[in-house]
Amino acid sequence: MDRAAVAKAVDQAWDESVLPSLSELVKIPAISPAFDTGWAAAGHLDAAIEHLRAWISARDIPGANIEVLRLPERTPLLLVDIPASEGAPDETTLLYGHLDKQPPVGGWSEGLEPWTPVVRDGRLYGRGAADDGYAGYAAITAIESVRAHGGAHARCVVLLETGEESGSPDLPAYLEHLSERLGDVSLVVCLDSGAGDYDRLWLTNSLRGMAQLEVKVQVLDNGLHSGIASGIAPSSFRVLRQLLDRLEDSATGEILVSELNVPIPENRIAEARSAIEAAPGLVRNVVPWPDGLRPVDEDEVELALNSTWRPTLSVIGADGLPLPADAGNVLRPYTTVMLSFRLPPTADPEAAMRAIQERLTTDVPYGAKVTFGHTETGLGWHAPDPAAWLSTALDQASHEVFGAGWRTMGLGGSIPFMGLLHDAYPDAQFVVTGALGPDSNAHVPDESLHLAFAAKVTSAVAYVLDAHACR
C-alpha cells in the first residue's frame, strides 16, 4: 500500500467530502432515546441514519451492501457490509460508531449552538461532531483509501447504532440477530474513544463497567412537623448516610464492597506511568480546577488508576428534597438518590449489583424501608495484548502520520459494546481509539472535533486494515 498516498487522500476526503456532510449531520437533533422518549415519532434518529446512508451510497464502493436494520421496538441500526479485497483472509473486521447524541444542554459560548455547525480554529463545533458522528465517515474513508492506493482489507462491516448514549440497550439483540452474518470477527475497530493529546495516536486499553441504581429510604407515610417529630422518628437522610457508609469510605472515597474491587494488572500500571510521562497533565488537566480545589491525590499515576481501575461512587440524582426556597420545617418521609458506580474493567457488574443491594437492605437502621427503582449494569472491558502485526502497524502509523510514538490509556467511562464484543469474539484484536481529545467537550457545551487529528486517526485505521489483511 502506498501509505503516503493514503494519508494525502484521506486529508483531501476530509476537506472535500467529510466535513460538508458531517456539518449537515450536526444539524440533526438525534438525541439518544434515554433523553427523548418520543424519539420514534420525532424521527431524528432515522434522519441521522438516512443522512449517512445517502453519503455512503454516493461513494459507490464496489460490492458494498448498505442496510438499515429495525428490530421491533428497537432503535435503528445502519450496517455497511463491504467485501474483502482479492486474496484477503476469510475474516471480518468490525468497525463501530454511533449516531445518537447527548442532549444539547445550555451554556454554549457566544456564536456557538448545539445544532449549528461552526468551524473555528480547525475544529468543527456542534453536538455529535466528536461524539460520535465522525466515526462512520472515518471508517468509510479509511476503507476507500486502502482500496484506492494498493492496499488490502478483509471483509469490513461498519456498524453504526443509535442507542449508545443510552447504554446501548438494543445492541445485544442486534448482535444476536447478526451473529451468523458477521462470521469470524478477527479485528474490531472502535472509533468512539479518546486521546490524551493531539500529538500522537492513542489506544484505549481498558474501559470501566458500571452499576447504577435508584435507592429510596422511607421512614414515614407523610411528612411531620420537625419540631414535633425530630428526635423521635429517625431522619431518612441520616439512615441513607449510614447505608452509604457501608459502601464508601467518605473520607477517602474508597469503595468498601469487595465485589467491586479487583487487582490492578502490573502492565496497566506501567502503561499509565508511560502515558503520563509522554503527556504530563494527561489526567489532572481533564478537570477545570476552581481556585483552591485540590485533586484527591497529588500523584498523577494514582489519579489515573483511580479513574480507570478503582471503583468509584457518584450520587447523580436525588428526590424527596425540596429546593431550599421551598423547604419547610418538616421531617421528610423519604429520601431517594440515584447511585452511579464506575467499576473496574474486569469486575462482574451483576455480582457488584447484588452485593450493593445486599449491603443496603441488611439490618437497616431503625427498620426503615429500603426499595430500589431503576437499576442498570454495564460490562467493562480489558484489551488483549496487541499481536505483533498490530504493534508494527501502529508503530508505522504513529511515526509516519503523527510523528510520535503511540501510547495507551484506560478510560473511566463505559462503552458496553466493547465488553459484549470481547465476550462474543475473545480471540479478536481490538483497536479502540478516537478523536475525543482535550477540550472536545463531549456531553457538555461547546462539543467540538479536532479536524486534522480526526483525519490522522482515519489514516491510522487505514494502516491497520491493510496490515490485518496482509499479516
TrEMBL record:
InterPro entries: Cyt/Met_Dipeptidase, Peptidase_M20, Peptidase_M20_dimer. SUPFAM superfamilies: Zn-dependent exopeptidases. It comes from the Bacteria. Coiled coil: none annotated. One of its GO terms (molecular function) is peptidase activity. Residues 206-363 form the Peptidase M20 dimerisation domain. Keywords: Hydrolase, Metal-binding, Protease. Pfam families: M20_dimer (PF07687), Peptidase_M20 (PF01546). The keyword Hydrolase applies. One of its GO terms (biological process) is proteolysis. This is Acetylornithine deacetylase/succinyl-diaminopimelate desuccinylase-like protein. It comes from Saccharopolyspora phatthalungensis. The lineage of its organism: Bacteria, Bacillati, Actinomycetota, Actinomycetes, Pseudonocardiales.
